[in-house]
Amino acid sequence: MLKQIKSSFKRSKTIRSLNNAFKTLQSLEQQTNPRFKLHPSNKQLCFDDNTTYTGFDRHYVYHPAWATRIVKQINPQKHIDISSTLHFCSILSAFIPVDFYDYRPAQIQLDHLKSLQADLMNLPFETDSVTSISCMHTIEHIGLGRYGDPLDYDGDIKAIKELKRVVAPGGNLLIVVPRSREYYLL
């Protein structure tokens, strides 16, 4: 109960601070050539933006940064990505042509980035043919039917086998899967 009271008090204090900041902005608007009208109905309270450091989701920042550096170091003619994140693929495509495959292709248009449809349990590549391929935070979703994939209890295992099948001898497979919470607690 005390925690809820403290939280409500902090939120009320933050609301007062944000409202005061808005009034200050309105006052500053009067001292310049207004380019737009500050109106209370357009006010959107953002409670957690005023921080010392920019927050980010470590889970979705570090692994694409790692993979981009690895693929750039490998420097393949083309990189294949299987359903990772478009953030990763779109940035990587600035340096290396990328073919992004997903059950649901993205309607994205960028130079050196193709978005194509594929089933991770039945990839459209010859055996031992792909020299640079990634599949990050995807395997754990395969077989659950969330993305148009068929329900399959062993979907994750089939997906791993399929990735192993298509990667060329001496090729590179970058794979990322989550670790359990228990691992973090050790």
Task: Characterise this structure.
The protein is of the alpha/beta class and 186 residues long. It has two domains: 2-42, no CATH class; 58-178, Vaccinia Virus protein VP39 (Rossmann fold). Helices cover 37% and strands 17% of the residues. It has helices at 2-29, 58-74, 86-92, 155-166, 181-185, and strands at residues 79-82, 98-102, 113-117, 130-136, 167-176. A five-stranded parallel sheet has the order 3-2-1-4-5. The longest helix is centred in the N-terminal third of the chain and has 28 residues, at 2-29. It is elongated. The model has no long low-confidence stretch (mean pLDDT 88).
Write the H/E string, N to C: HHEHEEEHEH
How is the main sheet built?
Answer: 5 strands, parallel
| CATH architecture group name of the largest domain | 3-Layer(aba) Sandwich
Helix content range: 25-40%
Low-confidence residue ranges:
none
- By CATH, the superfamily of the largest domain comes out as Vaccinia Virus protein VP39
- Strand arrangement across the biggest beta sheet: 3-2-1-4-5
Look up the CATH topology of the largest domain: Rossmann fold
Count, helices: 5
Shape estimate: elongated
- Provide the structure class: alpha/beta
Compact summary:
By secondary structure, the chain is α/β, with parallel strands linked by helices. The chain has helices at residues 2-29, 58-74, 86-92, 155-166, 181-185, and strands spanning 79-82, 98-102, 113-117, 130-136, 167-176.
